Amino acid sequence: MARRIRTYVKRALAAAILLAAAGWTADWLLLRHKIAKDAGFGEVEMHYRYAVHLKNRRIEQRTELPQLEECVHSLFPHYDENPCWYLARHANETQELDGSPWHFWGDDRP
Q: How do the domains of the chain map onto residue ranges?
C-alpha cells in the first residue's frame, strides 16, 4: 500500500514538473513570435517612494520622478525582464529604509 502511494506521489511530482516546463517553453516560444513582429517588449511607468525611519521616530517620505521600466509581454520573466502584467500591478513601490546608524551587534549601545 505504501509503495503504491509513493509511486503515485513520484508520478504526480514528475507530471507537475513536466507541465511547468512545458508551460514555460510555450510562453518563451510565443514571446519569440511576438518579438519577431516587434510586439514582445513594452514599458511601464514606475513610481518609487522611500519611507525613511529617522532617529526621532518620525518617518520622512521621499518620492522620485517616475521612471520607465522595460518589460516583456509574457506570462513568465524572460531575457532578464519582468512581465508587463507584474510591473503594472506593482507600479507604485514603497521601500522602507532605516535611517539610524548601523550597529554590528544589533543593540542600541551609545
A: 2-98
